[in-house]
Amino acid sequence: MSVYQTSLYSEIDYEADGKQIGRLSLPWSVTRSAYGVIPIPIAVIKNGEGPTALLMAGNHGDEWEGQIALGKLIRSLRAEDVAGRIIILPSANLPAARAGVRVSPLDGGNLNRTFPADPAHGPTWQISHYIEHHLMPMADLFVDLHSGGGSLDYVPFVGVSLIGDTDFDRRSMAAMRAFGGPYGQVYDASAGLAAPTGGGSTAGGAAIRQGCIDIGGEFGGRAVVDPDHLALVERGLRNLLAHMGITPGVREEPPAPMRLMTSDPASLYIFASDYGVFVPAARLGATVRAGDLAGEVHAIEHPEKVPVPVHFRADGLLICVRAVGRVEPGDCLGHLAIDIDEPRFDQP
């Protein structure tokens, strides 16, 4: 348990049967509202004994597919549909979601880089503290739904974190396959989560620390909602809850073939080295090789300057591309994923 305390509070009773829709109240004192709160939506649907799933979206405010899917789930699920408990946090970083931006406009905090949190740092850290130390300890399964937001676009994929424990990893892989989709990203969390995407400071890292199966994914991007990507998320949630036995009346769809991949190595990422406008040379979903041209950065203030080429540093599938033309040095222009073998688990 953290030595720190958060000021978030809620009238939700997590142990009560039934369907509750309420708010996490985050105190926020400003000139226009001395005793104001930020009302973060939360729903709890419980019916008797059974597993608990914590479903979250809006970790980044401009990633919409998960927020929409979880809102639809809140409206459609009834307590009698459930055996166990579902905790739904559809817009976890509500200040960022309200503004349609990745990080909180209140304190500049990136919720997915604040775990484990000292709540004294600001409102974003108070939210992450509540998630890790109040919600996650109740959960058997944690699902964090992402997309590329305003700056990136992704080939939709579901992801899972493995920790090197045979039983846990077997159950985690089964959960990812139950969610389904054409691509499955597998992350090695045995020594901290994938460094290029934030490591143990992410919500996924917190979930692993709290003993939860950690399912995530990226489901599109460009700060828009693609109906096909939204349908994939909805179907995935439906299958996953059925797989966990939380919605026993729903029939789990048979798993479809899934291409297993990883994006752990840093060499799979490409970055801008200059200011300008990035013109990609490869399309999202393309198969590329090390040395291939990824694109060029054009210096629009200096049209006489030769564009700066950017090359891929590895072979792989282009699973992510930048969605914004204007770039600065250090901006991520995209990254690859590479195929991996099916994990093999030692017999317990």
Sequence-ordered SSE layout with sheet pairings:
Elements: E1 18-27, E2 37-47, E3 52-57, H1 65-76, E4 84-89, H2 94-99, H3 123-135, E5 141-145, E6 152-154, E7 157-162, H4 166-179, E8 183-188, H5 203-209, E9 213-218, H6 227-243, E10 259-262, E11 269-271, E12 276-280, E13 287-288, E14 293-298, E15 308-311, E16 316-322, E17 326-327, E18 332-339
Parallel strand pairs: 3-4, 3-5, 5-9, 7-8, 8-10
Antiparallel strand pairs: 1-2, 2-4, 6-16, 7-9, 10-18, 11-18, 12-14, 12-17, 13-16, 14-15, 16-18
Helix pairs in contact: 1-6, 4-6
Show unreliable segments.
Answer: 193-197
Mean pLDDT: 93
The percent range for strand residues is 25-35%
What is the CATH topology assignment of the largest domain?
Aminopeptidase
Name its key features.
348 residues; alpha+beta; Aminopeptidase; OB fold (Dihydrolipoamide Acetyltransferase, E2P); 2 domains; 4-stranded antiparallel beta sheet; 6 helices; 18 strands; 20% helix
Brief digest:
With 348 residues, this protein is of the alpha+beta class. The chain has helices at 65-76, 94-99, 123-135, 166-179, 203-209, 227-243; strands at 18-27, 37-47, 52-57, 84-89, 141-145, 152-154, 157-162, 183-188, 213-218, 259-262, 269-271, 276-280, 287-288, 293-298, 308-311, 316-322, 326-327, 332-339.
What does this 3D model show about the protein?
The chain is an alpha+beta fold. The protein has 2 domains: 18-262, Zn peptidases (Aminopeptidase, 3-Layer(aba) Sandwich); 266-339, OB fold (Dihydrolipoamide Acetyltransferase, E2P). It has helices spanning 65-76, 94-99, 123-135, 166-179, 203-209, 227-243, and strands at residues 18-27, 37-47, 52-57, 84-89, 141-145, 152-154, 157-162, 183-188, 213-218, 259-262, 269-271, 276-280, 287-288, 293-298, 308-311, 316-322, 326-327, 332-339. Strands 1, 2, 3, 4, 5, 6, 7, 8, 9, 10, 11, 13, 16 and 18 form a 14-stranded mixed β-sheet that branches. The protein has a 4-stranded antiparallel β-sheet with strand order 15-14-12-17, with no helix packed on it. Residues 193-197 have low confidence and may be disordered.
